Amino acid sequence: MSAAPGLFAQHLASGDRLTDVSAWLAPGADLEDLAQRAREVTLQRFGRAVRLFAPLYVSNACLSSCTYCGFSKGLDVARRTLSVPEVAEEAGTLVDRGFRHLLLVSGEHRIEVSADYLVSCVEALRGLVPSISIETQTWSDDTYARLVDAGLEGVVHYQETYDRTRYAEVHVAGWKRDYDRRLASTERAAEAGVRRLGIGALLGLSADWRADVAAVAEHAVWLQRRYWRTEVTVALPRIKPSASGFQPLVPVSDADYVQALCALRLAAPEAGIVLSTREPAALRDGLVRIAVTHMSAGSSTEPGGYSHPGEAQEQFAVSDERTPAEVAAMLRAAGYDPVWKDAFALK
Amino acid sequence: MWEIAGRSFGSRLMVGTGKFRSHAVMRDALVASGSEIVTVALRRVDLTRPEDDILSFVPSSMTLLPNTSGAVDADEAVRLARLGRAATGADLVKLEVTPDPRTLAPDPIFTLRAAELLVADGFTVLPYCSADPVLCRHLEEAGCATVMPLGAWIGSNRGLRTRDAIEVIVSQASVPVVVDAGLGVPSDAAEAMEIGASAVLVNTAIAVASDPVAMARAFALATEAGRLGFEAGPGAVRDLAEASSPLTGFLS
């Protein structure tokens, strides 16, 4: 049985729109002009500062089958779920490398990565790391409230694609198959008091990447209007090679990608824009000058990969393999302050 | 000279430390500003990494004013202020409670509540607040050492949009009025000083300028000029011309 459409799903269905990115996303738009405008907006709102974070993969166990993901159920890959002390060890390694903002990432496995497990992780890390976020399966009970109570700052749930038909094609089985459950989970997190919400789409998944960018922009602005206490970050990861063997439906060129991020920046000036190490160094360096405000660095997408690399399957191959210190040096050379700590312990 | 809770200061320009492209540029701009009071967000301070920490780039001659930026309610602000006091040993705190990340508008209700709690706990409280004359009265009665009404939305560089309210606040206040937030160019600082503010606080306008060091100096000069203009006692504004050499002067 599928969940009933949430508030944003109803808003999308209504046809009413808070944003219009069509001119910025039009083929043939003047990309340099867009980039200049996006840069102005980014500098005004965020200044010359980029917040650094690291993903901490706690598990690649998964009960959902998604055609594009290296963790998908049924793939014959080395699976591993870190114990809470192992999660703390990974966090310690990342703290030694400078990070004070961590994102705990997992596949979708409600037994191995249960609510109790996540609460224990947050409790174990909160004295060590002032900003803790999660990117896990969605939750429908009081889990978000329990996590907030434990000291959680942020929740990231990418919708991957806002196109219902395409969503159903690539999300074959498991809880993630339920489009409405997933889309409404961000609302549930906001209502539970989560103060940072991350949303996004996986470009290359749907044939119409422009429609997904427009939906992400609309979602960001809608969330900001409705949940006024909440900070919203957006991301547009592009599909990377993984154990799934999935090929993107349409290529999204670098120029398309820059245009997409410019449109997002102009449509949602207050939203943080996150760029991961999926993208190559040269592109990341360029985008930081235009629109990006949050970056990961030196990432491993394998559970345990910081302290004990090579023992489990990674989710996807990273492109930017520079160390955190090298990325920080790049930011400084570009005239930006690498912000390692911009948070305080909530509990 | 002017005073906050019995401490005297020469410069009437206070500066912030956010949004600079590097700690080194920030330090040079702080020096160029001639300021004696610098505010630092406690959420940016990391005492576990002293070599890289923002505090190590603040000249030691300056008075450190930790702020509670990021706090969304009174309890968080109080907790942050106490962490700041433990870290810096100072009882000064710039109280910021901003639950709305879009506007970063100060929350009048939680700001007043936090101010009462912090004053009771022995802090010298400088609250960032809405440009609201009644709220400023309440904050003063709660024992705040200053009031710090906003000139415009923080970081907006929109100038002294709240001028009418600031004039009222200045006319009634018995603590220093520091215009905080929104001042975008040096003439905005001069304008605030000309209408009688005790001081101004500037951050974004300096930090995001092409040349932050030169902009810091420009704000210092404008703040001083505005204050001198206020103290000099401006003439009245009239609707029409008034001859500077009256034709009937010979009669007296």
Notable characteristics:
heterodimer, A: 347 residues, alpha/beta, TIM Barrel, eight-stranded parallel beta barrel, two-stranded antiparallel sheet, globular, B: 252 residues, five-stranded parallel beta sheet, 37% helix
Question: Can you describe this structure?
Answer:
The complex is a heterodimer of chains A (347) and B (252). Chain A has one domain: TIM Barrel, CATH 3.20.20. Chain A has 347 residues and is of the alpha/beta class. Chain A has an 8-stranded parallel barrel with strand order 1-3-4-5-7-8-9-10, surrounded by 5 helices. Chain A has a two-stranded antiparallel sheet with strand order 2-6. The longest helix of chain A is centred in the middle third of the chain and has 18 residues. In chain A, strand 8, helix 10 and strand 9 form a beta-alpha-beta unit. Chain B contains 8 helices and 10 strands. In chain B, helix 2 crosses helix 3. Chain B is globular and about 75 Å long. The relative contact order of chain B is 0.14. In chain B, 37% of the residues lie in helices and 15% in strands. In chain B, strand 7, helix 4 and strand 8 form a beta-alpha-beta unit. Chain B has a 5-stranded parallel sheet with strand order 5-4-3-10-9. In chain B, strands 6-7-8 form a 3-stranded parallel sheet. Chain B has a two-stranded antiparallel sheet with strand order 1-2. Chain B is α/β, with parallel strands linked by helices and 252 residues long. Chain B has a single domain, classed as TIM Barrel. The chains are: A alpha/beta (347), B alpha/beta (252). At the A-B interface, helix 3 of A face helix 2 of B.
